[in-house]
Amino acid sequence: MKATYFFVNVCHNKEMQYLKPCILYDAQCLFCKRFKQALEKIDTKPHFYYYDVNEEEVFQHFTFLDREECLEKVHLIKEDDIVLVGGDVVAEIGKSLPGISKLSWLLETDISKKTLNVFYETVNKMRTNSSICSKCKR
Question: How far apart, in whole angstroms, are the C-alpha atoms of residue 84 and residue 113?
Fold first, then answer.
């Protein structure tokens, strides 16, 4: 089964069931779409579900989330409803994916966490200042 099947809506009695762990991304943003596609390619045995932050139902289900914050930075909701944001999402992905997870002990140091946050903030700044994604340009 390909990872892309995990993006399919799971419905019961016409109500959407949101499965976790899930990554919330902006499907209208080219950077975000490419990020999701890259994850799907390396996540051969899918570990994450993906939901578009432009879908109103996402915020009706996850009432503790703020739409504007989710549009600003990537969010990951773990199975226990813990919400990770920005660089912490990158670290969690690194810990979860086989191949990368073998090096996850490197992500536990303070310097690694700071480096991941700087990396994420730099990429996010490129996304919001880029002509590649006019939607994200602020």
Answer: 13
pLDDT of residue 53: 95
The whole domain housing 104 covers: 3-129
Report d(CA 123, CA 32) in Å as an integer: 11
| Residue 3 binned pLDDT confidence (cut-offs 50, 70, 90) | very low
User: In b/e form, how buried is each residue of 71-107, taking b as 16+ CB within 10 angstroms?
Assistant: bbbbbbbeeeeebbebbbbbbbbbebbeeeeeeeeeb
138 part of a folded domain: no
Report phi then psi at 26, rounded to 5.
Answer: -95, 105
In a domain, 136, yes or no: no
Q: Determine the Cα–Cα distance for residues 126 and 102; give it in Å rounded to an integer.
A: 29
* pTM of the predicted protein model: 0.73
| Residue 15 maps to a domain | yes
User: Mean pLDDT across the chain, nearest whole number?
Assistant: 79
Name 12's Cβ contacts closer than 8 Å, sequence gap at least 6: none
Please indicate, yes or no, if residue 134 is contained in any of the structural domains: no
Dihedral pair phi/psi, residue 54, rounded to 5°: -85, -5
Task: Identify whether the C-beta of residue 27 lies closer than 8 Å to the C-beta of residue 33.
Answer: yes
